[in-house]
Design goal:
Blueprint: H1 15-30, E1 36-39, H2 46-55, E2 57-60, H3 62-65, E3 75-78, H4 85-93, E4 97-100, H5 104-110
Parallel strand pairs: 1-2, 1-3, 3-4
């Protein structure tokens, strides 16, 4: 079987992911040396995750959220997929600064 894959010329990350990456990059440029935590992968692309990781983005899961050292001085990025209200409450309770990158389309669907 000969399978041919064509990539559409306008393919790429969705607008919500592009926005989240842009906000992460802006934070990492404005605060060099400071860690930015992302709750889950900001994008489903290993090369992009590596690139952002080299700039200081650390991907964590919910368990990792509970183990951030010195959380009151840390910043958490909520990726384009969004999170339930309990996650925001938990982050606030831990004293984390939150950068909410939930996609506007996702927010609209959640309402």
């Amino acid at each position: 079987m000969n399978l041919q894959v064509e990539i559409e010329k306008h393919s790429g990350f969705c607008g919500g992911v592009i926005r989240a990456i842009s906000r992460a990059e802006k934070f990492l440029e404005e605060f060099p040396g400071k860690t930015l935590y992302s709750l889950g992968d900001i994008v489903h692309n290993e090369a992009e995750l590596r690139r952002l990781g080299e700039k200081g983005l650390v991907t964590i899961d919910k368990e990792g959220l509970m183990n951030i050292p010195g959380p009151s001085l840390k910043t958490l990025l909520i990726r384009a997929h969004g999170e339930p209200p309990q996650t925001y409450s938990l982050a606030q309770g831990l004293g984390l600064t939150v950068i909410d990158c939930t996609c506007p389309v996702v927010l609209k669907l959640q309402k």
